[in-house]
Design a protein that fits this description.
Length: 490
């Protein structure tokens, strides 16, 4: 169904793809693996029409294909669910699903009734209860991912590319996604699936292609001879043993107390504490209220009832800036939308929250700022050509480390980390785990929000489980299991 021959793509002096040959069959789920920066997303963008190759050829269903833009690719039957959100926040869910392809009445005007009906049918097919009339800016990252998948399925696609579609999905949503993919495969569609979650690859894929440093390492049938260790070794080019850092041994004094927080339609009666040197996990399905609680704590969203105490004192926080003055930092699950300013440099992003520290009467002390940035890049292991490199040109893992470095630059001692490892490779995950553990050992208090239950069990000592806006379980991770956490969340 699809073949890419000897694809080459350069960005400045960096070769992102070096003579890559790739093919996938009709009725196949073909996984594409590789560390961040290996070239996976670049290859998929070429197949999806977002990029033109410098050299090489594409063939679709045996015929030469050349796409100048994504719309041409869609017209030819290639649809993409990108890793970064590509939605228009001010438009409704339905308008985003059919953007550029809105149904029209005989007078050439948008047929709004049909638009909303067809969008509602697609969302129902995905088993998600979303109102297609809601603006995208009012929904969370999980619901935005569902909207993107619905948009990709709204055309008669021969090839469906999914680039980290599960990055912010919980187990229940994952089951629905797998059912959709299985139905597409049975219908003869070709599904190209990119994910850093190897368990997903083994659960859904037929074959896997591994990229490393812009080159194709190999194509493997997923049988008894191929296991997790084998694939990770091919990705990183060496023997690999995935390890989590040791958990902090002791917790100190209470830094944050949340008492009976409520916000209509989002969460109700939420209470918990965070202590210095402690990592507390927050589990739950997408839409359970985890992100909404974090955003209310930092003042991004209003609180209707309850109170927040920092260092034993009641505080009233009405903005993220005020939260920072109270020592609270929030790492958003939406890396591109809220975590980094992608069009600015690494250095500008790292000092964004503390830029006044380097100003004297409105004039920046550039040398001091540069020295500080270089030190923070070293501490967080940001791999870039230099502090002036644009963040958008970094791999997803390095972008996430830049976002972390920005908050580590502040005096904050309370960190709310929302999906900090979503969409990044195993190597970058280990580095971020180390950063989080080091933070806790430095007497910071951390709330770790994650959709990956093994991550929560390995990194935290206490686990809170949310369901429909309420905390329904409080577990010791020494006793909890994946099954017990999932049962509480469902």
């Amino acid at each position: 169904m699809l073949e890419a021959r000897d694809i080459v793509k350069d960005f400045g002096g960096t070769r992102a793809l070096d003579r890559v040959h790739f093919s996938a069959n009709a009725g196949e789920v073909h996984a594409v693996l590789g560390e961040n920066g290996a070239g996976k997303s670049t290859l998929m963008k070429i197949i999806g029409g977002a990029l033109r190759p410098d050299r090489g050829e594409l063939y679709l269903d045996g015929r030469p294909a050349q796409f100048d833009n994504p719309l041409q690719a869609m017209d030819s039957g290639v649809s993409v669910v990108h890793q970064q959100f590509t939605l228009v926040p001010e438009l409704t869910i339905a308008e985003n699903i059919f953007l550029g392809r809105e149904p029209r009445n005989p007078w050439g005007l948008v047929d709004w009734k049909r638009l909303f009906e067809e969008a509602r049918a697609l969302l129902k097919y995905l088993d998600f209860d979303l109102d297609p009339r809601r603006p995208v800016k009012e929904i969370g990252a999980g619901e935005r991912r569902v909207t993107e998948i619905a948009r990709a399925l709204s055309i008669s696609a021969k090839v469906l590319i999914m680039d980290e579609p599960s990055a912010v999905l919980g187990p229940g949503e994952m089951e629905t996604l797998f059912k959709i993919i299985s139905a597409l495969r049975a219908d003869g569609k070709t599904v190209l699936y990119i994910s850093h979650r190897l368990d997903e690859i083994f659960a859904i894929a037929d074959r896997v292609s591994v990229l490393r440093d812009g080159r194709l390492v190999g194509v493997y049938e997923l049988d008894d001879q191929v296991d997790r260790t084998f694939l990770v070794g091919k990705m990183v080019g060496r023997q690999w043993t995935e390890q989590f850092p040791d958990k902090p041994a002791e917790k100190g004094r209470e830094l944050l107390r949340v008492e009976h927080l409520s916000r209509s339609g989002a969460f109700e009666d939420v209470s918990f504490t965070l202590h210095a040197g402690e990592i507390v996990g927050l589990a739950g399905l997408v839409g359970s209220g985890r992100t909404e609680v974090c955003k209310s704590i930092i003042g991004s969203d209003p609180i209707e009832a309850g109170r927040i105490l920092v260092n034993g004192k009641v505080v009233r926080i009405t903005s993220p800036r005020e939260a920072l003055t109270q020592g609270i930092a929030y790492l958003s699950e939406d890396r591109q939308g809220e975590g980094v300013v992608a069009c600015r440099s690494v250095g500008e992003n790292i000092t964004l929250a503390v830029i006044r520290r380097f100003a004297n009467r409105g004039i920046l002390k550039l040398r001091s700022e540069a020295e500080f940035v270089v030190e923070m890049m070293r501490k967080t292991d940001v791999r870039a050509a230099g502090r002036r490199q644009t963040v958008s040109s970094l791999s997803g893992g390095n972008q996430q480390k830049v976002a972390l470095a920005k908050w580590l630059s502040t005096p904050a001692r309370i960190f709310l980390l929302d999906e900090p490892t979503a969409g990044i490779d195993v190597g970058a995950k280990s580095e971020i785990y180390r950063i989080i553990a080091d933070l806790a050992r430095g007497d910071a208090a951390i709330l770790l929000v994650s959709s990956e239950i093994p991550e929560l069990l390995a990194m935290t000592t206490r686990l809170l489980v949310m369901k429909k806006g309420r905390i329904v379980a409080r577990l010791s991770t020494g006793e909890a299991t994946e099954e017990s956490v999932l049962n509480a969340a469902l």
